[in-house]
Amino acid sequence: MSETNPYMMVGERLCMDFINTVSWRESAEKRRDWFTSYAKLIDWSVHAEVLTAQQAQDLLVEAGENPSQAEEVLKQVIEMREVMYRMFKSISKKTSPDEQDLACFNEYVNHFYRSLQVIHEKDQYMLKFKQPEKNLDTMLPPILQSAVNLLVSKTELVRVKQCEGDPCGWLFFDTSRNRSRRWCSMADCGNRAKVRRFYQKGK
Ligand SMILES: [Zn+2]
């Protein structure tokens, strides 16, 4: 949840990094959403390698011509992100997701998985989302797919965790061999916890 680097990516899965585009998630005062405009969403998507620089440029032109549509997409992106946040948070706490959230998530699945196609490319068959290039929400399918793949992975779900730093709230996929990771980042929340322990010992 670093304030200094706006594009810190520590989630280890695209869907986790997408969820972590809010700093200090669990704090009412400090909470800061990175997606304050459609342009910011595009910027992050390039950084996350969901969009190429060329795609980003084209989408920004498109958004400039259809500002209200871009606004609408931004609203949907944030809604989907918050639904995913609540679902994966409940997974990290080993509780069931809210039914309404799952229903909402499935609306996105229904919508975007319609464009899934088997494509023949370079002597290989691949499953790809085929949407019109200029769709303003073209960054969403791969993010959604990352979430779906993780959800149905069964064995991997136990690695979904929430940072213990309070009030960080960030989620991550724990890739450590013995599943011992506790913080979004050692340099941030991990370090703050260490400092706190040091002072408590000193008292
Ligand atoms: Zn943290």
UniProtKB/TrEMBL annotation:
PANTHER family for this protein: BLL6575 PROTEIN (PTHR35525)
Zinc finger CGNR domain boundaries: 159-201
Organism expressing this protein natively: Rossellomorea aquimaris
InterPro entries registered for this protein in UniProt: ABATE, ABATE_dom_sf, Znf_CGNR
Pfam families in UniProt: ABATE (PF07336), zf-CGNR (PF11706)
Full protein name: Zinc finger CGNR domain-containing protein
Source organism superkingdom: Bacteria
